[in-house]
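Entry 12.
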Amino acid sequence: MSGTSGVSPHRVADTLSALAEKKSSATVREQFFLAMLAGMYIGFGAIAATVVSSGGTLDPGLARFLSGSVFTVGLMLVLIPGSELFTGNILMTLGFLAKRVRPLLIVRNWGVVWIGNLAGALLLAWLLYQSGQLTDGEGIRTVGQQAILIAERKLELAQLFWPCFVRGILCNMLVCLAVIMACSARTIEGKILGIYFPIMTFVTCNFEHSIANMYFLPAGLLAAGQFGSRFWEIFANLIPVTLGNIVGGLTIVLLHPNNQRLLFRRLRRSANDSQSEAAAAKEEESGSESGRENTHESRK
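Predicted 3D structure (tokens):
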């Protein structure tokens, strides 16, 4: 889109590249605490989705749609106030293609932000547990029962690596599209609409989001009283989903023809630079050998 309706795709790519440069230049401390906020923001959306889906009389399809609708508040909080979300930061690869960010800085950001997102989601799950929303003195509440059901389903899915991985791919394709659509909007209202539809779609379709699962899984285990004994089981889900999220985000970036041209141009230049360096090193080495031979002959 262009004109007053939205930002052009080329301008969006420039914005995301500049944002990648800014994110990569932040300190590890800044990245970590902004990531904690994002983990909590996504967790707030997950709490709302759990509450909505705990209504037992709703049609299953309608319950998913409503859960997806309220879950969208998580990404709205991430993108509008600003924070660091692992799944959205896969788009930082645009900064690499534009030669504005080094790959190691991108990988460092992903690692720090993933850990920060986990810390924020765990903190929010613990706070909700302490609030008495999941359990009370008489037992597990309705929301707590739904949290347990969601966690058990995700842990059951984790027994099969491939479905987890593929659902992670599909999920982050939609999340990255939501980020792109939000960046293309000129108003807060436009950003909200750009975020709403892709995120509602991935929740309704039951795809897997690694950062949302960082809340869903611990919350269910806390409600069931099994957090300590089963904590490490959550990584059976988080690892394949995270890998799928990375592939899904890269798919959105690399399938675009403009980005493919940038990538091939970078690879070609890297290959040419490597050949030039090898030729220069060889020439320097041969020059050194000639110098040594001349020195030896003059001594004779």
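Annotation: The mean pLDDT is 88. The CA atoms of residues 130 and 136 lie 10 Å apart.
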